């Protein structure tokens, strides 16, 4: 499929909606949707500007005014007038008494009144002023000279409204972090959970232990030179954030009502720290900084010297991060090294601890006492429930909802970030032009419609659910533009789910408001995904192969799709797609979705031939095992378009459904390869072969144990960068419609994983 460069088209507002409440929300285009909206027939004329005067005693109003000026500049909206002689409508800040939120925390609520005479923002805190100003900015951005008169009473549904970013596997720049904080604030998200340490990298400067960053902050390139390509970065890969950078980021976040929660992993995911200081480990002989993904068995030991080290680290961490919570990880801590370590076993016997899970509970309890003694609270992944939960710990539930339910029933606070649907490193649509990420799909609708309060909990137990968080892990999300694509706009859906009352949310209304939100995101220099709006074209051959049945659809199913078949660009008067089209082959379809007069996403231009109707991208194929796969780029991180391959590492095997073999005379595979980079437990990573591979793809009919249709040698793609089209293999002797299984046989070179990018049948 050929697409134009990703960019948003000018936004025209559409106020039509299904429900009366949604009509008011759409008309003011505020995201997340306010809790209560009352519109009136009046308008505020902004052609003379909007003047603001703040009392010298109201420092909060003055600082929020400066922040609002910056927001208006990003959308090229006229600035506020600050002269006292202006006769323009006035913006006024009014302080009110604080209200106690139902879930604790600070009062972040506000009231926003827009009348023909001016604007009033009423709140009990700077956070309320800030959020009222953000809602006003959203109404003013790209407004045609006036905005609706409206009364808004608004406040958050949840106390914890978060985004987690993994900066350990692949590190982002300080500027990127600041951009992300801007986006979060503009969507009333208030917690930035920052994953700073991992097996593959330690990203926070600790003055007392410099080798954590000088050694643990860098690793060899994830891919070797033969795999990386000629323009890949060379030398060690990594870096770290200095303490001065962190102080700047924390202060920047505070100005936007965002608390930064650092994560320092323990007792597992600790390889980088233990390569730097091996005496703290539970086993000897670490080979060096790891370059592969997966679960490593390396654990901190349980000696007093190790706790002294961790406490010294957290002392510096707490000096940098003044927030209430310190995240200590606790996930995926394989216990093999503790089981094999005589000192650990002796410690368990001394303490009367019966198994290694209970030993982790003791480990976390000791760290929690230290954290509590410094006026902070410990939070960890839901594995900290194993072996017994520390007395005051907060559980972050990622393996579904069970961890949160268990914690709340025990009287502990919990935060919901289940991988389905709140992990944003999962792909967001089934389109073949999506960037790399995990399977299956966590769509925009999945995020928006997530039920955040488990029905199995009583009202008192539900009060322990502090909130929700979207999380993005960076193993396969290599670059900053990819992170933006995966985060935005799913973070906006998360924000509305976290902020707006459950009975006030409506997905279709959210989609009506989304084009304006996407425009503001692009105004700020960020690159949101347009997956929910972009047209996907699917064509299947009919008859003798001289025609095809063409289907057009969008993921969001909003508005109508307009198209052309004569090569001309799509306009809002082009024909409306109303059902499958019979088109001659070859043809060229152009298509674009519209919501009223608002163009959604970008136009597509796709040439349709008999060969293209038979072609399958690996992202259109099923995994033979039925397991979720990984869509990954082949080489080290850099901002460039790279081929994406879909694979299940443990079984590189793909199924082409309903192949019409009467139309096939041969088949060409587009293949690539990587060194084996995924591990679990003590399984060693096999080394890639140094000799030309004898691996092959065996094509079976009907099942992976069915008759062999053909075989394809893989040697031409061995140690080649990118996608290598292999010589076509003839397909003969079988007719009719069958499933085809494409299975790699690779017994001589287990250190290489073979990747399929496409299957291109040769038409008869």
TrEMBL record:
One of its GO terms (biological process) is carbohydrate metabolic process. InterPro entries: Beta_hexosaminidase_sua/sub, GH, GH29D-like_dom, Glyco_hydro_20_cat, Hex-like_dom2, HEX_bac_N. It catalyses: Hydrolysis of terminal non-reducing N-acetyl-D-hexosamine residues in N-acetyl-beta-D-hexosaminides. GO terms for cellular component: membrane. Keywords: Glycosidase, Hydrolase, Signal. Residues 28-154 form the Beta-hexosaminidase bacterial type N-terminal domain. The active site is at residue 332. Residues 158-501 form the Glycoside hydrolase family 20 catalytic domain. Its EC number is 3.2.1.52. Residues 547-598 form the GH29D-like beta-sandwich domain. It comes from the Bacteria. CDD domains: GH20_chitobiase-like. Residues 1-26 form the signal peptide. GO terms for molecular function: beta-N-acetylhexosaminidase activity. Gene3D superfamilies: Chitobiase/beta-hexosaminidase domain 2-like (3.30.379.10), Glycosidases (3.20.20.80). Belongs to the glycosyl hydrolase 20 family. This is beta-N-acetylhexosaminidase. It comes from Terriglobus roseus (strain DSM 18391 / NRRL B-41598 / KBS 63).
């Amino acid at each position: 499929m050929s697409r134009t460069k990703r960019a948003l088209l000018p936004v025209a507002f559409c106020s039509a909606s299904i429900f009366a409440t949604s009509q008011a929300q759409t008309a003011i285009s505020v995201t997340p949707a306010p809790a209560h909206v009352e519109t009136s027939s009046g308008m505020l004329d902004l052609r003379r500007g909007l003047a603001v005067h703040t009392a010298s005693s109201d420092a909060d109003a003055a600082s929020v005014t400066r922040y609002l000026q910056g927001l208006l500049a990003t959308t090229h909206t006229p600035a506020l007038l600050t002269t006292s002689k202006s006769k323009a409508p006035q913006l006024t800040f009014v302080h009110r008494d604080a209200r106690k939120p139902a879930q604790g925390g600070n009062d972040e609520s506000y009231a926003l009144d827009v009348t023909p005479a001016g604007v009033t923002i009423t709140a009990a805190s700077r956070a309320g002023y800030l959020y009222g100003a953000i809602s006003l900015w959203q109404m003013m951005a790209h407004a045609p000279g006036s905005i609706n008169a409206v009364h808004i009473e608004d406040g958050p549904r949840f106390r914890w409204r978060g985004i987690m970013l993994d900066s350990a596997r692949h590190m982002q720049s300080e500027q990127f972090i600041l951009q992300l904080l801007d986006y979060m604030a503009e969507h009333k998200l208030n917690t930035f959970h920052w994953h700073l340490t991992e097996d593959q990298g330690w990203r926070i400067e600790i003055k007392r232990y410099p080798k954590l960053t000088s050694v643990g902050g860098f690793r060899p390139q994830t891919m070797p030179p033969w795999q990386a390509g000629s323009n890949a970065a060379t030398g060690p890969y990594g870096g770290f954030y200095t303490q001065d950078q962190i102080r700047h980021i924390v202060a920047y976040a505070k100005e936007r009502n965002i608390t930064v929660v650092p994560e320092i992993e323990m007792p597992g995911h600790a390889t980088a720290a233990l390569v730097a200081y091996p005496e703290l480990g539970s086993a000897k002989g670490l080979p060096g900084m790891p370059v592969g993904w997966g679960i490593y068995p390396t654990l901190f030991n349980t000696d007093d010297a190790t706790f002294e080290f961790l406490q010294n680290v957290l002392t510096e961490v707490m000096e940098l991060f003044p927030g209430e919570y310190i995240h200590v990880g606790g996930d995926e801590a394989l216990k093999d090294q503790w089981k094999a370590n005589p000192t650990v076993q002796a410690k368990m016997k001394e303490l009367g601890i019966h198994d290694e899970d209970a030993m982790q509970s003791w480990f976390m309890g000791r760290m929690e006492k230290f954290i509590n003694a410094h006026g902070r609270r410990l939070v960890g992944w839901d594995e900290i429930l194993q072996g017994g939960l520390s007395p005051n710990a907060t559980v972050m539930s990622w393996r579904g909802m069970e961890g949160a339910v268990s914690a709340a029933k025990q009287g502990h606070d919990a935060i919901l970030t289940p991988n389905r649907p709140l992990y944003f490193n999962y792909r967001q649509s089934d389109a073949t032009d999506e960037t790399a990420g995990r399977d299956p799909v966590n769509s925009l609708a999945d995020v928006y419609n997530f039920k955040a309060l488990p029905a199995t909990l009583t009202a008192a137990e539900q009060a322990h659910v502090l909130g929700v968080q979207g999380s993005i892990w960076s193993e396969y999300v290599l670059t900053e533009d990819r992170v933006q694509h995966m985060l935005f706009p799913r973070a906006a859906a998360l924000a509305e789910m976290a902020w707006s009352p459950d009975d006030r949310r409506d997905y279709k209304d959210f989609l009506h408001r989304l084009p304006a939100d996407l425009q503001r995101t692009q105004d700020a220099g960020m690159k949101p995904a347009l997956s929910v709006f972009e047209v996907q074209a699917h064509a299947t051959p009919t008859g003798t192969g001289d025609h095809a049945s063409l289907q057009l659809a969008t993921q969001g199913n909003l508005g109508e799709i307009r198209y052309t078949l004569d090569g001309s660009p799509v306009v809002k008067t082009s024909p409306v797609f109303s059902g499958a089209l019979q088109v001659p082959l070859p043809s060229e379809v152009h298509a674009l979705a519209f919501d009223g007069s608002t163009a959604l996403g970008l136009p597509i231009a796709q040439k349709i031939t008999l060969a293209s109707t038979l072609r399958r991208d690996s992202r259109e194929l099923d995994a033979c095992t039925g397991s979720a796969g990984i869509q990954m780029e082949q080489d080290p991180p850099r901002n460039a378009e790279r081929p994406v391959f879909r694979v299940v590492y443990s079984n590189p095997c793909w199924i082409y459904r309903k192949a019409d073999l009467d139309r096939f005379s041969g088949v060409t595979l587009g293949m690539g390869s990587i060194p084996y980079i995924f591990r679990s437990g003590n399984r060693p990573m096999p080394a890639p072969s140094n000799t030309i591979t004898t691996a092959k793809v065996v094509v079976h009919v009907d099942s992976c144990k069915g008759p062999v249709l053909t075989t394809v040698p893989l040697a031409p793609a061995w140690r080649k960068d990118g996608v290598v089209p292999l010589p076509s293999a003839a397909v003969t002797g079988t007719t009719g419609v069958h499933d085809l299984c494409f299975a790699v046989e690779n017994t001589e070179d287990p250190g290489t994983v073979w990747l399929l990018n496409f299957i291109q049948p040769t038409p008869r």
